[in-house]
Write a structure and sequence with these properties.
Protein name: non-specific serine/threonine protein kinase
Strand order of the largest sheet: 1-2-3-5-4
Shape: globular
GO molecular function: ATP binding; metal ion binding; protein serine/threonine kinase activity
Enzyme class: transferase
Bound molecules: adenosine-5'-triphosphate
Largest sheet: 5 strands, antiparallel
Strand content: 5-15%
Family: Belongs to the protein kinase superfamily. NEK Ser/Thr protein kinase family. NIMA subfamily.
Number of helices: 14
Number of strands: 12
Helix content: 25-40%
Structural class: alpha+beta
EC number: 2.7.11.1
Amino acid sequence: MRWVGVCPYPYVKVHCASMDSYTVLRVIGEGSFGRALLVQPKDDSGQYVVKEIRLPKTHSGQESSRTEAVLLSRLKHTNIVAFRESFEADGHLYIVMEYCAGGDLLQRIKQQKSTLFSVDVVLRWFAQMCLGAKHIHDKRVLHRDLKSKNIFLTDNGTIKLGDFGSACVLNSSKAYAYSYVGTPYYVSPEIWDSRPYNNKSDVWSLGCVLYELCTLHHPFQARSWKSLILKVCRGAYPPLPNHLPYELHYLLKQMFKTNPRDRPSLNTILTSHRISRLLQKHLPPQQLQREAPSRWKKEEGERVAVFLGQKSLIETTSSVGGSMQEAQSGHEREHSRRKWAGGLPNTVMQVLENADIISSPSMASGSSFDSSAGGALPGTQRTSPRRQWDRGTPDRLLSLLDKAYQSMASKTYTVHKMDVEGPLMGPLSETGLTP
Ligand SMILES: Nc1ncnc2c1ncn2[C@@H]1O[C@H](COP(=O)(O)OP(=O)(O)OP(=O)(O)O)[C@@H](O)[C@H]1O
C-alpha cells in the first residue's frame, strides 16, 4: 500500500500518520461510506476506531468528506467522540477516534427487548446528550443526523455523540439551507415542509431519541412513508407511559412542537426548563461547572469556515436560541448520500398528500429498528457505495416508495430543497442510475 506522506489538508492538525502505525483488531461495521475498524496503535495499548472513508473523485466531494474530520478535530467535549488524528492514503480518508466499547444506543435499546430503562438511566443519558449537543450548537455547528445509532456509550457508561458526517457549520449570511442530511424517522417537520432549519431541528431529533429511551419505540411509527411524514408534520405521537415523571411528558411535548420557534433550545432545556433541575441532578458536578458556553473565537471559527468554504461563519455570536434561527447548509457528502429533492412547486409533503396511500408490506413490527435490513432495495448490495438518487417525477418516486422497505426510514438521506435539483427525487431508488 502507498501512503501519502504529506498532510493532505491544511486545517486539521495531523501527524501525517498512516495505518502502518496501527494493528487492525477487527472490522466493527460497514457504513455507506466505508468501514469502521477497531485498531490498536503499535506504540500504545489503547483501542481506537478508524473510519475508513472512500474519497470521491471530485475535489468538492473530497472536501465534503473531510468535513467530519475537520469538525470532529475541533469539537472537544466529554460527550462527543474524541478525535485522535486523520490521514489519507490510496483514495481513502482515515479518521481515528475514541472507541466507545458500550456500542451505540440503538443496540442498547434492542438489547432491552421489552424491559424499559429506569427513569434515572434515561435522565442520565439524556442530560449528557444535551450537553454534547449544546456544545456543538454553541460552536454554531448542527449535527443534523442525531439518532440512537449515532449516539455511543463508553465502557463506563458515558454518552458520546458521534458520526459528524452530516454536520454543518452555520452561516448567517444565507436565509436557510438548500439541502438537509437526515434520517426520516428523526427529521423534523420543517425539513419535510421545506422551511428553514436550525438548531431546533437537532432538538427534534433528540426528542425522538428521548422517546425511544422512554418507550423502546420510535415516536413516529408508520406503515408507509406518507403516513410517517404526516405524523411527523402533525407532531402526533403515542403518549409516554404514565409512570414517567410529569416533567418528561412536558419536555417531550415541547421538543415535538411542530413550529421550531416553540421548541426549546438545548440551553433552555439544560438551564431554565422545568426539567432542568431533574437533569442537573444526573450530571457530575464537575461537568456542570465546565458547561459555560464555549464558542469558537472569531478567528478560529473563520479558519474552520474558510476551510469548509463558508466564509461568513460566526458573524454574530449572540445566543444559540436566537441567532441560529436562520441557518445555511454546510458541506455534505452529497456525492454519495441518498438524495431526496424538494419538489417544485410543492413541498415533499404536498406531493405526498396528493398521492395514494403507499403500502410497505415489508414493515414488520419493530422493523424500524432494523437498520441492517435498510439501506438498500431488494437486490442491491448494502456494501455498494451510496448513489445519487434517481431523478424522477413524483409518480416515479411514489412507485419506488411502494416497493421500498419502510425500515429505510432509519437510514440517512440528503433532502434537497426546491430549485436546486429539480423535481422530487426518490430516496429509494438505489438502482445505480445517477442523474
Ligand atoms: N467511535 C465508535 N465506537 C464504537 N463503535 C463505533 C464508533 N463509530 C462507529 N461505530 C460503529 O461502527 C459501525 C459503522 O459505523 P459508521 O458510522 O461507519 O456507519 P453507519 O453509521 O453504520 O452507517 P452510515 O454512516 O452510512 O449511516 C456502526 O455499527 C457503529 O455503531
